[in-house]
Design brief:
This protein is mainly α. The longest helix has 45 residues. It is elongated. The relative contact order is 0.14. This is AGRG4 protein.
Length: 153
């Protein structure tokens, strides 16, 4: 959906309808945050599968992932809309190219908080999960080598 909204964005902007532009910008923002959130959920699943291998059971695990994956971005979008719906709008890259219009976040502060900071938090969490998994794999390898040497002796 992110790709479809992104590709249709400039065409829909050409209709010069403020409500349509706000909707397209909001959808683009939502699906971008949803992609980031699902990436984070994948790293959590990666951690659970490779580090917490045994005795890990979460009732309705997929339902909880879906609520987080689709719900957290919806909360962010709702907060932005509640604060000011005019944060979304038509931003022309240049006046000499009328087809370069693009519906997106107009306020830099909102962009840095709701996109860049959001991505940075998820990037840090993914990095932490990745390092944890690597350390776990390394410790298993070390223990296996020690056990192997013990049995050889």
């Amino acid at each position: 959906m992110l790709n479809i909204v992104f590709l249709l964005n400039s065409w829909l902007t050409s209709f010069n309808q403020p409500g349509l532009c706000i909707t397209v910008a909001m959808l683009l923002h939502y699906f971008l945050l949803a992609a980031f959130t699902w990436m984070c959920l994948e790293s959590v699943h990666f951690y659970l599968a490779l580090v917490k291998v045994f005795n890990v059971y979460f009732p309705k695990y997929i339902l909880k992932c879906c609520i987080a994956g689709w719900g957290i971005p919806a909360i962010v979008i709702t907060l932005v809309l509640i604060i000011n719906k005019d944060f979304y709008g038509n931003g022309s890259l240049s006046e000499s190219h009328p087809y370069s219009n693009f519906c997106w976040i107009q306020d830099n502060t909102v962009f840095y908080i709701s996109v860049v900071a959001y991505f940075f938090i998820i990037f840090l969490m993914n990095t932490a999960m990745f390092i944890t998994v690597l350390l776990q794999i390394h410790s298993v390898k070390t223990r296996t080598q020690k056990t192997s040497r013990f049995w050889k002796q």
